[in-house]
């Protein structure tokens, strides 16, 4: 009997966290046609166990971490990749130091995002597009290319100045210490980011927190800068919630009163051209006023055995997560829409 197709990898935790194991049997009478494989087994494995089982030929498809890509390739395993389009972005807490657009834009210019991306992900990420979506052209948006002189001028224009030792002082003449919070997943990103801010003249207090304390810190606004990752691959209503809703990891940007009206205009429209133009206007506001700043767009990787042909789902799965676990590439001989 032919071995079932195994889909493994630590990223493939589905709904049963206790078992982490699912066995799917083909329905030969399915109305869309006979599925490609007789049996498909989905199981949760650690990254180390996944690599061992793929090398043995026991696992066929797996999401893999970027730091193991070279290991898979050296062992002759096919590796496919796609931008995650879930950028790591920096939220500005706007009730204190970053209440002004000048201050937020200054930080955007003060960061060398290319170096941040290269050092944090060892070449396995790109500089994020400076808008809400990652899969659109950047024309018409400010890329905030590294320009520390322009950053300094923006801060001085709002009354800040540098001390003789090179530290930034606020309009009261007090030394500025920025609180940077992030989840424990972003250790390296936080270190590189803090180093760049310190080189620019800020003292930085970095706090890496587990998931629940991190969300509590965000809800209580106990930070100046926070690193989060959240996107929805083109679902405009989810972008609305991320930008103008009350989501814990969202921007909660209520200052610009035109944004809710623009989102409402999209919701009431059936004209694709009008929707795209209106969304472009929303992105320009976001890009200019910077309630948050997209920094890095990590790359997702999956390993495939010779027994399967698969690709990342166009526009992602669920909330836009690029994965190879999708009906078109895993279960169908060809797309049911063809």
Task: Give an overview in words.
This protein has 338 residues and is of the alpha/beta class. Helices cover 33% and strands 20% of the residues. Strands 1, 2, 3, 4, 5, 6, 7, 10, 11, 12 and 13 form an eleven-stranded mixed β-sheet that branches. The protein has a two-stranded antiparallel ribbon with strand order 8-9. Strand 10, helix 6 (187-200) and strand 11 form a beta-alpha-beta unit. Helix 3 (101-110) runs antiparallel to helix 5. InterPro entries: SBP_5 (IPR039424), SBP_5_dom (IPR000914). GO terms for molecular function: peptide transmembrane transporter activity. It comes from Marinomonas algarum. This is ABC transporter substrate-binding protein.
What distinguishing features does this structure have?
338 residues; two-stranded antiparallel sheet; SBP_5_dom; 20% strand; SBP_5; 11 helices; 33% helix; peptide transmembrane transporter activity; alpha/beta; ABC transporter substrate-binding protein
The separation of the N and C termini measures: 31 Å
Q: How helical, in percent, are the residues?
A: 25-40%
- Unreliable stretches, pLDDT < 50, 5 or more residues? 9-15
Tally the helices. Answer: 11
Approximately how much beta-strand content do the residues carry?
15-25%
- The chain-level structural class is alpha/beta
Total strands: the figure is: 13
The gyration radius over C-alpha positions equals 23 Å
* Mean model confidence by pLDDT: 88
Largest sheet: 11 strands, mixed
The rough form would be described as: globular
Helix and strand string, N-terminal first? EEEHEHEEHHEHEEEHEHEHHHEH
Domain Solute-binding protein family: 23-231
Protein name: ABC transporter substrate-binding protein
GO molecular function: peptide transmembrane transporter activity
Pfam families: SBP_bac_5
């Amino acid at each position: 009997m032919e071995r079932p197709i195994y889909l493994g990898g630590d990223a493939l935790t589905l709904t049963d966290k206790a078992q982490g194991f699912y066995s799917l049997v083909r329905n030969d009478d399915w109305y869309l046609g006979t599925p490609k494989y007789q049996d498909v087994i989905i199981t949760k494995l650690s990254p180390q166990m996944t690599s061992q089982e793929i090398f043995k030929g026991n696992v066929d498809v797996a999401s893999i971490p970027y730091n193991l890509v070279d290991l898979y390739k050296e062992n002759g395993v096919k590796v496919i990749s796609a931008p995650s389009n879930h950028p790591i972005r920096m939220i500005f807490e706007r009730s204190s130091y970053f209440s002004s657009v000048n201050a937020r834009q200054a930080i955007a210019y003060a960061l060398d995002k290319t170096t941040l991306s290269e050092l944090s992900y060892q070449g396995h990420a790109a500089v994020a597009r400076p808008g809400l979506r990652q899969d659109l052209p950047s024309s018409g948006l400010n890329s905030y290319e590294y320009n520390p002189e322009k950053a300094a001028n923006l801060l001085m224009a709002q009354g800040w100045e540098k001390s003789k030792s090179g530290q930034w002082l606020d309009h009261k003449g007090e030394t500025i210490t920025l609180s940077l919070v992030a989840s424990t997943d972003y250790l390296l990103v936080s270190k590189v980011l803090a180093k760049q801010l310190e080189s620019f003249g800020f003292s930085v207090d970095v706090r890496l927190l587990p998931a629940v304390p991190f969300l509590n810190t965000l809800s209580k606004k106990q930070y100046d800068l926070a690193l989060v990752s959240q996107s929805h691959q083109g679902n405009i209503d989810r972008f609305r919630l991320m930008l103008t809703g009350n989501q814990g990891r969202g921007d909660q940007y209520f200052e610009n009163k035109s944004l809710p009206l623009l989102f409402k205009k999209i919701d009431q429209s059936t004209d694709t051209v009008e929707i795209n133009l209106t969304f472009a206007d929303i992105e320009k506001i976001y890009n200019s006023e910077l309630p948050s700043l997209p920094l890095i767009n990590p790359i997702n990787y999956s390993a495939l055995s010779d027994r399967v042909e698969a690709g990342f789902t166009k526009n992602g799965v669920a909330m836009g997560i690029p994965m190879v676990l999708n009906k078109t590439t895993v279960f169908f001989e060809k797309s049911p829409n063809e």
